[in-house]
Every structure is written in C-alpha cells, then in structure tokens.
Predict the 3D structure of the following.
Amino acid sequence: MDMKRPSLTDIGYGRRKRTTKRDEFLRIMNQSIPWGEWVAYIEPYYPNGKRGRPPMGTEKMLRMYLLQCWFNLSDEGLEDAIYDSYAMRTFMGVNFFDDQVPDATTLLKFRHLLEKHNISKVFFDAIVRVLAERGHMMRGGSIVDATIINAPSSTKNEKKERDPEMHQTKKGNEWYFGMKCHVGVDAGSGYVHSLETTPANVHDIVVASKLIREDDGVVYGDSGYIGIEKREEVLNSLHLSQKEYRTSGRKPNAASRQTEPIPGFAPPKAA
C-alpha cells in the first residue's frame, strides 16, 4: 500500500477536534530532526544484512529508540505502546498493511549498538541544540531533578562483579541498587536540556551545577537541593553564584525563596 495514500484510519484521526500534547510534541520532533544526517551517522555501525536476517531500517529503529527515550518506556512497554498509539505509529511510519512494529529484542540490540559507540550522547546534544535554535526552548529558567534507575541487586559486569557504576542507596524506608539520572529541564517548555548519570548513592545536589545553563536566571528544585547556593562550586563560579535558587521545603530568604509545587513538564505518556 502506498504510504502517501491516507487510509480510513488516517482520515478518521485527521478529523479529531483536538490535537494532544503528544501529537504536537512528535510533530515538532519530526520536523526538527535532520533524519538523513542522523541515519548516515549510524549506518557505518549498523548491520548490513549480509549475515543473519535482514535488519530493520535504520531510520525506523532510530525513531523507535527516540520514542523510548522521550516517553520513558521499557522495551516491551514501548512495543505495546506503538501498537496502541496511532500517534507513535505515524511518527515511526509503521503501516500494518506492509510491515510491523520491531520487537523488543530488536530495540534492545539497537540501543546497545548506540551505547557502544556513544551515539546516543551525540543525538541528545543535537536535539537540545536544534530545539534551542528553532525557539522551542524558552530559556531563562531550569528545573533540576533526579530519579533512581533501579537494577536487580544481582547485576554483574563482564568480570562477574557488581558493576562499580551502580550502588546501593536508601530512599524513604526502602533500599535501592542501581544508578541515578540527574536532569535539567527547561522551565518554559518542559524539554530536558542536560543529563548526567551517577551511582545511586550520589546526592542530587552534588550534580546540580552541571545541569544549569549559563543564561538561566532562576533554578527550581525540591528539598534535595536546599543549600545549593552555599556549595563551593556555586560560590566560586561567576555565573552560578548569580542565579536565583528556588527550592521547596524551606522558608524564603534573600538567596532562596519557597515556591509553589513545580508542575511536571515531561512529554505525556503513551495512550
């Protein structure tokens, strides 16, 4: 079937009264990313199909990988979400008349390929740059936050030892083993512009200075960032020491004011 010819599903979906935030987000990403350049960057590392079964198209796998990053879904969870979500299928260019959604194992192998050659970091930086150049990031303020990426305590590396990049930590009354993802989010648009990973036992505030942009005037954070304005790396930095730090869970003073709860800005979950 010609992908350019609309199906009955396409026509029906096009008559909807409201465009969802997910639709709009994926439309912006589809228009902003230079797909040809990114595919060309991956192809030297991608299987050519001469051995084993023919690989899925590079661009299709790249689009699937980006969906996983944006919507924070597991391999199996994303596979199911694409089957359920018309917006995701459209973004990937999947037409059930001609092809199917790549399975979770194929996505896992593709992600490991990007990680092995450090391609995912290149693409993350490129997305941030493109969004900023096209005016989709508001600038002026950032939200900093961190989340634990839990892993089974039995996780071992190639030396049959517990991975030194992972560590045990306690949050509330529960213990976790794994890593921690620290993110800086543009307060106006909700797009992530900075990302750092550490062992799970590294405190949120330790990494915060790496998540702040030079042109940020205000930095928002939860109680884990109380006292950030007194840290040595902030006091000794000309641009960090000039920021206004607003953290929840403390009384306001000259350096830090209490704010209302900060709304979440992550792209909506798949339908």
Observations:
- Residues 8-126 form one domain.
- The chain has two domains: 8-126, 139-247.
- The two ends are 26 Å apart (CA to CA).
- The beta strands are 141-150, 167-171, 174-186, 192-199, 218-221, 244-247.
